[in-house]
Amino acid sequence: MIPCVNWLQPFLALISSTLLTRGHICPSSCLCPDHHTVDCTSQGLTTVPDFIPLDVRRLLLSNNWIPWIPSDFLVFYSDLVYLDIRNNSLSQLEPGTLTTSSKLVFLDLGSNNLTEISSGTFGESKNLIKLRLGNNPYLNMVDRDAFTGLTSLRELEMERNALTGLDVTVLESLPSLRMLRLEGNPWLCNCHFAKLFSWLTENQHKLPQDGGEGTTVTAQCKGNTSCDPNRSVQLFVYNVVPLRKGLPVGADQ
């Protein structure tokens, strides 16, 4: 797909120029409040719409039934900075889908059916500042290199997914991270989990605070010879694993 981009660029520039001379075109069933915004929210869409202006900067596709995004879709929209696809039916992102999204600043993939965030998913999205991946009830795997290259990312939301663990490398690869949400995941309390909480303890200032006392989590390390099986890990963190009386860790989902 990538070699095609080289010859597509002049072609797309010609098309864009032609469309601009004919006036702004808005996809059917969508609203275009200005020449750089396309709002297709809550239109019952099952596919991404056709005839999106090539100079779109804000694309709103939330609250539809879109099951997948073509891997070459964003090749045509190199000026896109804001993409909202929350509350659709996405189960995966094909490799290369975000490869050409170098200007993207905001991406919302929350409330979908994603199962895994694999290595290289976000391609060249080096200007991405806010990424929402929360409320994907089947998301149980984030590859350790999933966020490599997101050097500008400040806000990452992965709350209320199906994560039982998370490689600390995932977080260590985000030098600009300022806010992290992980609450509501069914964490597996083992020594791998303890490494994650150790990182979170050192970075409490990056976790959302609700003005309360925070949450004390007691996790028992089991099944790992590198840990003392009788030693509990007690950490003070904000909104990572909310506990309810009488329920085990992560059972509040």
Plain-language structure description:
The longest helix has 21 residues, at 2-22. The chain is 15% helix and 16% strand. The strands form three sheets. Strands 1-2-3-4-5-7-9-10 form an eight-stranded mixed beta sheet, with no helix packed on it. A two-stranded parallel ribbon has the order 6-8. A two-stranded antiparallel ribbon has the order 11-12. By secondary structure, it is an alpha/beta fold. The model is unreliable at 10-23, 211-226 and 228-253 (pLDDT under 50). Strand 9 (155-157), helix 2 (168-172) and strand 10 form a beta-alpha-beta unit.
Task: Write a compact overview of the structure shown.
This protein has 253 residues and is of the alpha/beta class. It contains 3 helices and 12 strands; from the N terminus they run αβββββββββαβαββ. A hairpin with a 2-residue loop joins β1 (31-34) and β2 (37-39).
Q: What is the CA-atom radius of gyration, in angstroms? A: 21 Å
Counting DSSP H or I runs of 4 or more residues, the number of helices is 3
Structural class by sheet pairing and helices: alpha/beta
The chain-level mean pLDDT equals 79
Main sheet summary: 8 strands, mixed
Q: Order of strands across the biggest sheet?
A: 1-2-3-4-5-7-9-10
Number of strands: 12
